Amino acid sequence: MGSVNFMVLPGVYAPQEDTALLAGALSDESLPPGAAVLDVGT
Q1: Tell me, what's the pLDDT at 2?
Q2: Residue 4, C-beta contacts closer than 8 angstroms, at least 6 positions apart
Q3: Where are the alpha helices (DSSP H) in 1-42?
Q4: Average pLDDT of the residues in 4-25
Q5: How far apart are CA 16 and CA 6, in angstroms?
């Protein structure tokens, strides 16, 4: 899985183990270079 950066806004639940699962699943998708992904309520 390439370089992954997580942006967490103040007051938002911090990334946990399940965040790595989501990032791993996204690495299997064909996203264009520079694409951004928003995780809302998972």
Answers
A1: 57
A2: 23
A3: 17-27
A4: 83
A5: 11
